[in-house]
Amino acid sequence: MGTLGTRGGDAHQNAGKPAGSKNLHSNGGAIQKVPAVYISYWGSEWNSPTAPSATYTYTKAMVYNNDFFGNVGGSAWNDIVTQYCMGVTKGATSCSGVSSTNFITNPTGQLGGTWIDTSTVPSSPTQTDIANAAKRLAAQFPTAVIANSTFMVYTPSGKSMSGFAATPGGSWCAWHSSTTYNGSPFAYAYIPYLPDAGTSCGMNFVNKTNDTAYGTGYFDGFSVVAGHEYSEAETDPFPSSGWVDRQGAENADKCAWSSKSANISLGAHVYAVQPTWSNLISGCPSV
Predict the structure, then answer these.
(1) Contact 185, 86 (CB under 8 A)
(2) pLDDT digit string (tens) for 73-119?
(3) Quick one: average pLDDT of 13-35?
(4) What 8-state DSSP symbol labels residue 224?
């Protein structure tokens, strides 16, 4: 399971800070050739027009996340992942000589669909609960290409898996993992209600002033953290069979909470994002 730790903490072994110049290598597994994202907003709470606060409502949070994933496909930020492929020898650090059909692509329109799952969220859902929520999401979109898709589960404020930074003793912000669905490998990710953790999980990480109309600044953590998990699922959808470094860190882990994080323009708005590792430059590129 690939996990993003809080700012200043550790995640996925040494991944809480850039991991030096050692490149990623392929473990011989799959990548997502034509990536797609599906989002489940789990819990009837997401239907509230005024919660969890009058200024930063669930509606605004959903718009922010939907807009980000609706426009991130085709972006220069996501182009970094197109250097990675499948079909190379285990241990390879480049895709030299690999057929173009085996590379990750970066098409527009990667948000395949969203759904509010009104089933009750436990006060502290388990990983099994979250995996089952991801499977319920997949069932809503039967035409989704499972091998290319990441099914993201968002839980409402105050109902997070133990270990999340907003829970007692918590140290991480989000994670992605895999299971099976209808007999096939299945990539999914868990995004708690990140504003609950404040600056520990990215609030105002890039934008120090909040845009109360749209949520920029206050919602920085959603694009930084969910973007982190999305990029890792593209390159390593079934951890850790895809692209990782010697310590097991994935592409986004190696650049987590980087000082090179910045805004990117997508559609009508800007979104805070972190860089992701590039083997081509053996480092974290500027956003």
Answers:
(1) no
(2) 999 999 999 999 999 999 999 999 999 999 999 999 999 999 999 99
(3) 74
(4) I
For residue 278, what is the DSSP state?
B
Q: Which residue has the tokens 């099994």?
A: 128
C-beta of residue 238 within 8 angstroms of C-beta of residue 185 = yes
| pTM over cut 0.90 | yes
Separation of alpha carbons 233 and 149, rounded Å: 9
Longest pairwise C-alpha distance within the chain: 55
Give me 192's structure tokens.
């708690």
Quick one: which of 225, 237, 210, 215 has its CA closest to 150? 237
Q: Contact 201/6 with Cβ under 8 angstroms?
A: yes
Backbone phi and psi for residue 230, each to the nearest 5 degrees, phi listed first: -60, -45
Tokens of 50: 């005024």
Where does the chain have alpha helices with state H? 58-71, 76-79, 127-140, 220-221, 227-235
User: Comparing C-alpha atoms, which of 216, 284, 217 is closest to residue 256?
Assistant: 284
Number of H helices, E strands in the chain: 5, 10
274, 228 Cβ separation under 8 angstroms: yes
